DNA sequence: GCCAACGTTGGC
DNA sequence: GCCAACGTTGGC
């Protein structure tokens, strides 16, 4: 059981979009950075917890929690010439790029804004808060996970599924937006 | 819109 | 293998 932070620009695919997706699930496609790819391909396991972060947002913030529901498999958008992140160098037999599937578990509303995260001592070492950090898929420690849950008013459980029925925070909102891929 | 930080590309 | 040029990310 491990914990991760996934970044997404809400204009592209927000946590509300994830909540509105079929099964509240999506394939985390389009990652084209090798370090992030390695986490997706090698380290992220079924049931792992995911902190859903909105980058390029006003303010940048943590907007929800998700869980991994399918481990690494080739990213289909890499083979699709019409996709934004098409990569002609990635072959079906030897794929370069991978995705996992995640499911929305809980919205965090109000979201945890970046300036507030910077004030939290327990998060001081977080990769997200490092100057110049751009990694879109990054590991999160158990301590950081618990600190985020506490800030969100949720129980300090290591089992992300347990948050589904926790009464302390809002339930995911729906959205009519669709994904731009 | 600006720009710092970082990753990738390609000439040599 | 080096490194300059370029493209991208993402906070501000």
Polypeptide structure, described:
The longest helix has 10 residues, at 34-43. The chain has a single domain (3-163), classed as ph1033 like fold (Roll), CATH 3.10.590.10. Residues 172-181 have low confidence and may be disordered. It has a six-stranded mixed β-sheet. The protein has five helices and six strands; from the N terminus they run βααβαβββαβα. The protein has helices at residues 10-13, 15-20, 34-43, 114-118, 142-151, and strands at 3-8, 25-27, 49-54, 61-74, 98-113, 137-140. With 181 residues, it is an alpha+beta fold. It binds a DNA duplex (12 and 12 nucleotides) through loops.
Which ranges are low-confidence, i.e. pLDDT below 50, for 5 or more consecutive residues?
172-181
Number of helices, where a helix is a run of at least 4 consecutive DSSP H or I residues: 5
Task: Specify the helix fraction band.
Answer: 10-25%
| CATH class assignment | Alpha Beta
What is the typical, i.e. mean, pLDDT?
90
Under CATH, the topology is which? ph1033 like fold
H/E element order: EHHEHEEEHEH
The secondary-structure class comes to alpha+beta
Shape: globular
Strand order across the biggest sheet?
2-5-4-3-1-6
CATH homology group: ph1033 like domains
Distance between the termini: 30 Å
Task: Sketch the major β-sheet.
Answer: 6 strands, mixed
Radius of gyration: 16 Å
CATH architecture: Roll
Q: How many domains in all?
A: 1
Number of strands: 6
């Amino acid at each position: 059981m491990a914990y991760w932070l996934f970044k997404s620009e809400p204009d592209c695919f927000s946590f509300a979009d994830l909540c509105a997706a079929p099964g509240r699930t999506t394939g985390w496609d389009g990652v084209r950075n090798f370090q992030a790819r390695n986490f997706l391909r090698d380290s992220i396991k079924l049931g792992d917890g995911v902190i859903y972060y909105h980058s390029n947002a006003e303010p940048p913030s943590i907007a929800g929690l998700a869980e991994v529901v399918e481990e690494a498999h080739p990213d289909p958008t890499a083979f699709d010439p019409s996709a934004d992140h098409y990569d002609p160098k990635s072959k079906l037999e030897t794929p370069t790029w991978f995705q996992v599937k995640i499911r929305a578990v809980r919205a965090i509303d109000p979201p945890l804004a970046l300036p507030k995260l910077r004030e939290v001592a327990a998060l001081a070492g977080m990769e997200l808060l490092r100057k110049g950090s751009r990694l879109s898929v990054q590991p999160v420690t158990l301590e950081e996970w618990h600190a985020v849950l506490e800030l969100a008013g949720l129980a300090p459980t290591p089992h992300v599924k347990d948050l589904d029925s926790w009464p302390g925070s809002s339930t995911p909102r729906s959205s009519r937006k669709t994904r731009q891929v």
